[in-house]
Every structure is written in structure tokens, then in C-alpha cells.
Specification:
CATH topology: Restriction Endonuclease
Strand order of the largest sheet: 1-9-8-7-6-3
Distance between the termini: 40 Å
Largest sheet: 6 strands, mixed
Number of domains: 1
Strand content: 15-25%
Structural class: alpha/beta
CATH class: Alpha Beta
Low-confidence stretches: none
Shape: globular
CATH architecture: 3-Layer(aba) Sandwich
Radius of gyration: 17 Å
Length: 196
């Protein structure tokens, strides 16, 4: 059993991939976090107004997902990590996790430069090896959405060198996340709503 553990409605609306039994681990060992993820994905809609709105530090799409999870006690989290070798401390910096709850780390990569995936996967790998997280989740967009962005006149804002499924999968399959169980959700056009 893998992604079949997810409700069919999610499998129909998102492109879903998993590595190292992430779904089974989440559902069986972290049922509350599993339910939170299901709820945020079930309630999410890709509104036209959010796509065409001018960008800022964080997109309305990322904010929507973050805020939903923050309302369920997920937190943005930085880790202070060091390795001790023969009484000598070696700092092993990690970057801030967008949303963390009970050892489940979730990153939203809606429209960043694609090297952000390398950063996320390396972070998942290191934090998993240090036993700080058990599963890493990435929510990004399906590559197919580029046609919709072009139609809405936003195609240049969402270029091929930004974060989308086709840029992520080869990195994971190449071992970028190490041994960390990973679950990926690609936001598809089936979630699109013409809200004006």
C-alpha cells in the first residue's frame, strides 16, 4: 500500500508521488498529521485571483496552505544543528522548515527558483539522519499548469526554471532526499477555480 492510502479525491486532483513508504508511515504513526494534510489538500482551491495577483515575498497560494496548517498547530521551524567530533563542534546548518508538526516537515514550493528543491531535499536528508523528522512533504505545482499561466498572461512569472514537478522528481529519484521518506503533491488544473 502506498498512495492508495490517500482518499481517491486527492489522487484525482493532485499528482502524487511517494518514496520509502511515506504514506504508510504518516497514516499509521502520525494519524493527526495525516488528517491535517488530508484536510488542507481537500479544502485547497487554485483561485484565478491568487495566480494573477502580483507577487511578493510569499505567494497567496503558499500563504493559504501555510495559514491553514498554522491554525492546526503546525509551526515554521528552524533547527540549530551541530555535530560533535572528538569534543569539537561542527555546525551543520539547515534552513527553516515552512511547516512542522510532530516530526513531519512540509515545504511549499509554488514559484521559487528550482534549486530550492535541492535545498529542501538536503534539509530533509540531514534532519532525517539526525532523527529530527520522520517524513518530508513537498507541495508544488504540476508542470502542466504552465499552459494555464500562459493563458492568464502570467506565463513569464512561472518559467521553466522555477519549482514544478518536472524539476523535482529527477532530484528525488537521484537520491537527493537520502533515506528520508518523502511525499510529493503536485497542484493540478483540476483544482483551478475562476473566482472572478
Amino acid at each position: 500500500m502506498g498512495i492508495e492510502l490517500l482518499p481517491q479525491s486527492i489522487r484525482e486532483k493532485y499528482e502524487v508521488y511517494e518514496w520509502r513508504h511515506a504514506c504508510a508511515i504518516l497514516k499509521n504513526d502520525f494519524p493527526n498529521e495525516w488528517n491535517d494534510i488530508i484536510n488542507v489538500l481537500e479544502s485547497f482551491r487554485l483561485n484565478k485571483s491568487d495566480i494573477v495577483k502580483a507577487g511578493g515575498r510569499k505567494s497567496p497560494i503558499s500563504n493559504k496552505i501555510d495559514n491553514f496548517l498554522y491554525s492546526l498547530d503546525w509551526v515554521e521551524k528552524s533547527f540549530d544543528t551541530k555535530v560533535l567530533i572528538d569534543e569539537q563542534k561542527h555546525t551543520t546548518p539547515t534552513h527553516k522548515i515552512d511547516c512542522l508538526k510532530n516530526r513531519i516537515a512540509l515545504e511549499i514550493e509554488w514559484n521559487n527558483k528550482d534549486p530550492f528543491f535541492d535545498r529542501d531535499l538536503n534539509n530533509f536528508r540531514l534532519l532525517f539522519e539526525l532523527r529530527a523528522i520522520s517524513v518530508g512533504i513537498i507541495i508544488t505545482r504540476c508542470t502542466e499548469l504552465q499552459a494555464l499561466f500562459n493563458l492568464l498572461g502570467k506565463g513569464k512569472s512561472y518559467g521553466s526554471s522555477t519549482t514544478h514537478i518536472s524539476k523535482l522528481l529527477p532530484r528525488i529519484e537521484g537520491g537527493g532526499g537520502g533515506g528520508c521518506p518523502i511525499l510529493v503533491f503536485g497542484i493540478s488544473e483540476k483544482l483551478y477555480v475562476e473566482d472572478y
